Amino acid sequence: MISLDAHAKINLSLDVLNKREDGYHNLLMIMQTIQLHDTISINEISAGVEIKCDAPYVPNNSTNIAYKAAEAMINKYKLDAGVRIVIHKKIPVAAGLAGGSTDAAAVLKGINTLFKLDLEQNELIQIGKTIGADVPYCIMGGTALAEGIGDKLTQLAPLGKIPIILIKPRIGVSTAWVFKNLDLARVGDRPNTGMLISAIENRDIRIIAENMRNVLESVTLSKYLVIQKIKKDLKAKGALGSMMSGSGPTVLGIFEDEKKAKSAFNKLRNSKHECFLTYMV
After folding, report:
1. Across-strand partners of 53?
2. I need a labelling partner for 192 at 20 to 30 A (CA). Which of 32, 146, 215, 278 fits?
3. CA atoms of 198 and 146, how far apart (whole Å)
């Protein structure tokens, strides 16, 4: 058996450049791994894929992206065995935190280790591209610039252990719905990606936090007013900056030190929303 931590991701920026002929969009994003994680256990069995997750709304069948990752590895490398996957879920579902993609990435890495395939990271990333847009990043992790549909990755300087508060209202947001309703002609406030990369290199947390931008907020905030309120609440409690992650609805707040983050968390944790104190890794 092998057990792995599957870390969530946040966006520090998200820009949508244009719509492609294949229906996807070209993106320019800065991604960041955080401590919050699921735990994935993988056992070898005689044949096939079995999957079980302890969270409601997560399918225990072939529609689960982690199942698809296992199936892809078994078929591609003609493994004469199967796997049983158990997912202990801590990352909220449909939250903009890549919870499904990071589970799939962990399965790819876990099967590589369990069956001693000795695949390089880039080989796993190529398989990940066939499974989901965020899977390649979740394989690599860290602080990274993502381009294309999110699959062209450039590692950036690590930011270290910066405290983050995540607040997820008890709603689910469909990524497909967000992109379907995105009107690029009406997007005004785009991220300055070059400036953010420079701030990351200088580890200037304040500049990063104050200049985070996510163009998908132009869609999600108009329908879910609670997201705007959460952004304001985080800043009122001392966050240097706050932004919706991915297609939402989770909102992140960056804090300059652990003491301020813990104080804010204690004030916010008893709200009706899910609330997490975590850190960049």
Report:
1. 87
2. 278
3. 16
d(CA 196, CA 28): 12
The tokens of 221 are what? 């905030």
pLDDT in tens, 79-123: 999 999 999 999 998 899 999 999 999 999 999 999 999 999 999
Strand order across the 251-254 sheet: 241-244, 251-254, 163-168, 274-279
What would the two tokens of residue 267 be? Answer: 């004030």
Q: Which stretches of 163-211 are assigned E, i.e. beta strand?
A: 163-168
Hey, which residues are catalytic here?
9, 134
Comparing 2-155 with 163-279, is the CATH topology the same? no
What is the fold, at CATH topology level, of the domain defined by 2-155? Ribosomal Protein S5; domain 2 (3.30.230)
Residue with tokens 């932004």: 243
Amino acid at position 192, single letter: N
What was the pLDDT predicted at 188? 82
CA distances, 45 to each of 48, 62, 69, 70 (Å): 8, 17, 16, 12
Q: Where are the domains of the chain?
A: 2-155, 163-279
Cα–Cα distance list, 274 to 110, 167, 240, 256 (Å): 29, 6, 20, 22
* Alpha-carbon radius of gyration of the chain: 19
